[in-house]
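Render this sequence as a predicted structure.
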Amino acid sequence: MDTLFNFIGSLFGYVLGFFNNVFGNYGVSIILFTLFTRILMFPLTIKQQKGMAGMQRLQPKMKELQEKYGNDKAKYNEEVTKLYQREGQSPAGGCLPMLIQLPIFYGLYRAICMPITCTLHLDITSGALGQAVERIKSLSDVYTTTNSSYYSQINVIEAVRNIGDNYAAYGFTQAQVDALKPIYELSKQFNFLGIDLLSIAKFWNPAIILTFVVFFASAGGMLLTNKLTGAANQSQMKGCSPNMMGVTMGLFSAWISLSVPSAMALYWTCTSLFAPAQSWVVNKYYNAAILNAKAEAQRMAKIKLQEESVVNDVYAKKGKRTFTPIYSLPQPADAEVVTSKESQAASDSIKTSSTDENTAKKAPASKKKKGGRNNSRQSSSDYQGKKKK
């Protein structure tokens, strides 16, 4: 794991080094690094929100399965797995952003504790720099020995800062002085608002201020985040006070800040302050109601497409034309064709009806004429017969 965290720390060191070169202050670099990681993880946060909304949408169905297969645990687990696969949900899908936070924290911790190798990317074990570092460690008046090997590079930077430009008094060669110059320039960038970001908070140094800032930022940030996401009401319903959770998290963060360099406390403070803003954006544009409504619309559209496919297959087997569903509206071009066909059919119908009316009017007249001729002929023959008699 040390190799992995050292690799992550080296990557983070490039980001911190870039911000350092632009702004020349390690505190500003920490703030921008926190914002950078938040933006980078925002798609994962949205995915987490979608996973939570999906699980919320499945709760009624899972309750039905619980009532149906409550006594058969194996069958219940099997049906729940099928439900997850059918709905495209994963119970662990929303845990990814929280799991990534741990490598980020430890990777940044390595980058802060080893700024020479991670930020400057210098080899302190060979060459003139290696010789200068070994000489610095032998100077008890400027170098502070610590039991933790993680802080050895911090101690070297503090020693270089204490030496200043007085290299000749400690017997450094010109090559060693040239090798130490990047470290000396970096040592001047750790002062942020009067606080040495390489120092560990104690009650007699200004770094203790960040401990109180971490407490209030962590506790207040968590309370505000719970209020924005509505998690406070859920916690109260489950018997867990959100106020107590916020205070507990604040105390834990403050306790951690007493054992790490103040740069980590600054990172934790920035994280706590950025979290409510991110929660507000997620809750406004990606809340559970919006995501569930979109998911339901997509599900209904998928069902309609499946129904169309089934009906079309049935019509195709019967040799009929393709079925047009009643819920699909015609395009403008199709609408014009349909309108022209309907108007033509209406015109033909009008012509046919008018022809039938004319025929119906002429038929009685012809019959009357025909009947009239017969009657006249009949009356004429009767008259001739009477005359002969």
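Summary. The chain has 14 helices and two strands. Residues 332-388 form the longest helix (57 residues).
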